[in-house]
Amino acid sequence: MNSSTEELMQQLGQQYEGAVMKPLCTAVVTVTPGQEGHARMSGHARSSDGLLDLNLAFPAELGGRGQGTNPEQLFAAGYAACFHGALVLVSRKAGIDASKATVTCTVTIGRDPADGGYILAAKLTVEIPDADRAKTEEVVAQAHKLCPYSKAIDGNVDVEVAVV
Question: Which residue in 55, 72, 101, 125 has the fewest CB atoms around it within 10 Å?
């Protein structure tokens, strides 16, 4: 890691003890509908800074054309990246090098038997090369408690966490 990354990691790893959330960053993304008049089927997503700028499409396995990303892929990418960040923070404190760790997030959308609507499920698969399995399982459990995505969906989305 370069020195500025190292400095940032130290700042992010510090314990916060305020009474309310201390905002660190806010992301703004606007979604517009496409030809189908339904953003999930043919929309476009663009972040306020323009770094995210992509077409949305219904997945082929749901009968769509699959010519764009879908909300489940975006959620999986965000969750995996956030979880990886939490993993690196807790691993450093435990003396484990997680710089080559991989986090794969699988997100499934399905029908909800409780209300007939829709529901998500997620699976995080984590690998830290050359790390002791017991220690890896410990830091993964700690990362799951620290990760903002894990906190946000706790009790709402079934999440399976696996160490490989």
Answer: 55
